[in-house]
Amino acid sequence: MIKRQPTSVILGAGLSGLSAAYHLKSGYSLFEKESEPGGMARSVYKDGYTFDYDGHLLHFRSEYAFSLINKLVDGNLAPHKRSSWIYSKGSYTRYPFQANFYGLPKDVVKDCLLGIIRARTNLLNGKVDLSGNFENWIRKVFGKGIAEHFMLPYNRKFWTVESADLTCDWLDGFVPVPTLEDTVTGAISTNTKAYGYNSRFWYPVKGGISEVVEGFLRKVNNIHVNKKAVTIDQYRKEIVFEDGTIRRFKRMITTIPMPELLKLLVNLPVHVKKAFAALRYTSIFVVNLGIGKDDITDRHWVYYPEEDMVFYRTGFATNFSLDVAPPGKTSVYIEISYSDRCPLDKEKAVRDTIKALKGLGIISDESEIEICLPMDIKYGYAIYDINRKWAVQVIKDYLQHFGIYSIGRYGSWSYMSMEDVILEGRETAAKLLNRGTCAGCDPIPQGYGARAEFTRKL
Ligand SMILES: Cc1cc2nc3c(=O)[nH]c(=O)nc-3n(C[C@H](O)[C@H](O)[C@H](O)COP(=O)(O)OP(=O)(O)OC[C@H]3O[C@@H](n4cnc5c(N)ncnc54)[C@H](O)[C@@H]3O)c2cc1C
């Protein structure tokens, strides 16, 4: 039976869909394929542990986003000063690598310093064209030493492709660029200066990141779960759900990952199909561990650039909130990237992870692991290769012609944070309410570092 309700439809109850619904206030129906809302910002509860779908920390650059989330969670947020590190050549150094080589072998320090001095001299002489691929940018801005000892191996592991195959579209201040003086300081002494978009972060005091979702759920109505859209007929403006029901719409906001839309939309023109086919992504395999001891580390997270370590980052969630593990225990998440070009044997990855954690002294014996809860995130990061920009534009333009707005991290196919998608939900709601753009809204950034950081005193 076709229900004739030509209203606004939102597909996907992750933070972008929830924010769009919150800001629309009424006149919408929100459909979610899973049995619960939240998408990537959900938490899983097991035997006294709370695991997020990978570490999820709140970074605020917008006063509006901070006020909104703080209000939604009723003040249940604590600020933290980042303690993030890099483990390389057997030593821990502070993040970011480019401002902290102190403690690394002398020949590495020499390579990095010489490289950055040469690079900066070239920049001063105006010899460098900074357009081009990410590897080019790394080499020109940081020099050969930093490129080869950290930037290139780490980014290869994280993106699963060579930096030469990436554009710089996602950068936008995301990779901190310290002054030469700061780099020299960090080569001869411990440099504690804060850099980058995530030098401060916020996390719920009680519960996991799903507290933000719960906050939205207290304000947002008309959510229908277990409603997986299986066909979107953009011409007839109808959505078919897996349970056989059909819903008509006048305008639609979709937060479904862009590659999935290719399977849902009907009679796509060849050039749009081509655009969909060009989208590439990394997947993230997260190994969540509950460890039966609490004296592991006071670090928040650690990056691992070297190939012999299967993971690119480990995070210690109990250092954001003691509430995420039973007393005297530690919650750890370990992140591993993979993709179609760089497949992963997941069982082996768990074994390799545990072996590496032993080697690092994070656990002394497997018996300390109380819980091992791997989570597989199919769409982790959109790969910013040379095709991404035009492909996303073609798809978005095509959809808007039918009154369909594709938003959110996976609907925009962008490197967006929770704050970013919440702001995009607000902006899109304003468009649907025929207010054009959202008067007074913070602009939606293209990457984490796009706006001046909104900082609060900790
Ligand atoms: C590994 C990782 C770590 C991250 N860490 C951070 C962090 O520390 N800080 C931060 O700010 N951000 C972080 N993010 C980003 C953050 O998770 C996202 O920006 C945000 O949660 C995305 O929300 P969304 O609504 O756009 O997408 P999603 O959360 O993916 O929501 C989309 C929703 O659509 C639903 N859906 C999909 N298909 C259908 C269908 N056919 N029919 C109906 N519903 C459907 C899905 O089930 C889902 O609920 C991280 C992301 C990843 C991958």
How would you describe this protein?
31% of the residues lie in helices and 22% in strands. By secondary structure, it is of the alpha/beta class. It has 3 domains: 2-44 and 59-80 and 205-279 and 385-432, FAD/NAD(P)-binding domain (3-Layer(bba) Sandwich), CATH 3.50.50; 96-190, Orthogonal Bundle (protoporphyrinogen ix oxidase, domain 3), CATH 1.10.3110; 281-382, Polyamine Oxidase, Chain A, domain 2 (Alpha-Beta Complex), CATH 3.90.660. Helix 1 (15-24) links the parallel strand 1 and strand 2 (28-31). The longest helix is centred in the first third of the chain and has 26 residues, at 134-159. It starts with a strand and ends in a 26-residue tail after the last helix. It binds flavin-adenine dinucleotide (FAD). Flavin-adenine dinucleotide binds next to helix 1, strand 17, helix 11 and helix 12.
